[in-house]
């Protein structure tokens, strides 16, 4: 905890926080899962608020179209070929050197989610898909960790705070993911930066309430808004209690945490890209050896974090754990074929 709280003076002048609340914030630990539009704003806001430890978990790398809304990145980070988690952590260190950040470049899935959240006080949702959110929900309810759901698309956003066994969990509200044909994505609807800023700011306000000792003021509603039309409403969640028949907090089935609902390949939002997970990778990828093989058929560059290759009109990005993002297709079968042909690990 920092000895001098002067940098947070304007914040703890706000009476509900005060110096005691600020010290609680400085001693708090948070995991941010996903470091895109929502995740960067969340991590940036909590770092400036003085949250003492921020773990940032993200699987992805930075592209130019991210800069429209992902506030911790710039052109220099793209030129350096940095993964999002690394770039975000480096930027936060320049913003607030008093706190600790832990960047983890990984795909958050059923094999690692519990370790990512077990030692923190709160989990923040910066993801872009329901599968990962349901996974977070399973793990947080199982471990008794509060978390803040956040989502936005186009000009609209949603946020809800989940306190296990005290409020409805995500699956109390959305028992199953919406059908693909009913779910707009970045590809079909786009996204406005102000929408991401609003929903992330609301989510961070809930986080600051919880971490500063103002738990009684946590919202028990699902809040929705549309920044373009200036519409907002709070949706009351029944009796604001967990549902006994909920498959997660009621029945405690943990379907997503057990992996029974997990995919090994997934289309990435707004990217014309597919991520392939390597189930057989037991150790870090040797980029020297892989580059020697791929240089014979395409253009290759790599650093200690990832390897990128341009082959037959596709862009392949390979991470240390064997995960590969194939850009140039949204067809899972085609992506798996490309992976088997060029990576094959």
Automatic annotation (TrEMBL):
Residues 8-247 form the THIF-type NAD/FAD binding fold domain. CDD domains: ThiF_MoeB_HesA_family. GO terms for molecular function: nucleotidyltransferase activity; sulfotransferase activity; thiosulfate-cyanide sulfurtransferase activity; ubiquitin-like modifier activating enzyme activity. It comes from the Bacteria. GO terms for cellular component: cytosol. PANTHER family: ADENYLYLTRANSFERASE AND SULFURTRANSFERASE MOCS3, UBIQUITIN-ACTIVATING ENZYME E1. Belongs to the HesA/MoeB/ThiF family. This is Thiamine biosynthesis protein ThiF. It comes from Candidatus Abzuiibacterium crystallinum.
